[in-house]
Amino acid sequence: MSGSCISFAVYLFFFINLILRTLASVVSVGDFNKDFYITWAPDHLNTSTDGRERSLRLDQQSGSAFASNAMFLFGQIDMQIKLIPGHSAGTVVAYYLTSAQPNRDELDFEFLGNVSGQPYILQTNVYADGFGNREERMYLWFDPTADFHTYSVLWNLHQIVFMVDWVPIRVYRNHADKGVPYPRWQPMGLKASLWNGDSWATRGGQDKVDWTKGPFIASFRNYKIDACVWRGNPRFCRGASTSNWWNKPAYRTLTPRQSRLLRWARKYHLIYDYCADKQRFKNNMPKECTFPKF
Ligand SMILES: *[C@@H]1O[C@H](CO)[C@@H](O)[C@H](O)[C@H]1NC(C)=O
Ligand SMILES: *[C@@H]1O[C@H](CO)[C@@H](O)[C@H](O)[C@H]1NC(C)=O
Known about the structure:
CATH topology: Jelly Rolls
Structural class: alpha+beta
Bound molecules: 2-acetamido-2-deoxy-beta-D-glucopyranose
Shape: globular
Number of domains: 1
């Protein structure tokens, strides 16, 4: 091979690499006006002038919602959320990743409001291939209405980790090889909403929304999306290339420190685990519940 041929090959190699990299992963920090669109009631939603903070409002007329412009397949998403202060019974703030229908995949954070002075519940759920019924519930170890806290999901081929201020609270491992559905084919969009869920949300629907205490406002800010942006080309996102950091061996399981934090969070704050609900599932316990969770 001649010299110019070699340098051309080298050039091509780096060029292709660069394209693969820029196509695969994105770090997006911050501007709601740029990365999201309003899906419900623009007049019930406001964004700070710099685009870095957005609030949703619920009143008797309407709730509100927004969604990401892009879809993602694997990565990590962080969002800071401040929940509704004071009386929030019956309200639900949802922050989730969701795919197209049918056979929906979905990873949910749902914040269930409460009467004044009583604790919020954080409910998480995992849908895979159209089926959910994997609820877990916990109380938080801080007042989520007093300030912003960071709620994150790490999603790769090995595990889905739900985190609160970087404390893992839930892990859903990939047991697809044993027949357990795992979200791994479909890209998901990021959504957030505030709505009236008083038929079920607070004490099983006993505490209704008290409209005289409204309007109810929840705020979002400083999100970070470090994920593979879906551009219709499965190779970039579905592959296991470690140029996407979440595919590195270090992210296949929790670190020892993360495991300790997870055990702590679950020991002291978990109040419901579908895998422990024998009454609900009788002899049909979901298959993933028969494997060690972490
Ligand atoms: C939106 O308006 C509400 C009510 O006036 C206010 O509490 C909130 O801070 C505002 N949010 C943003 C992001 O400007
Ligand atoms: C609301 O407060 C009651 C009483 O402390 C508690 O039992 C319940 O779990 C709390 N949260 C929700 C969402 O119902």
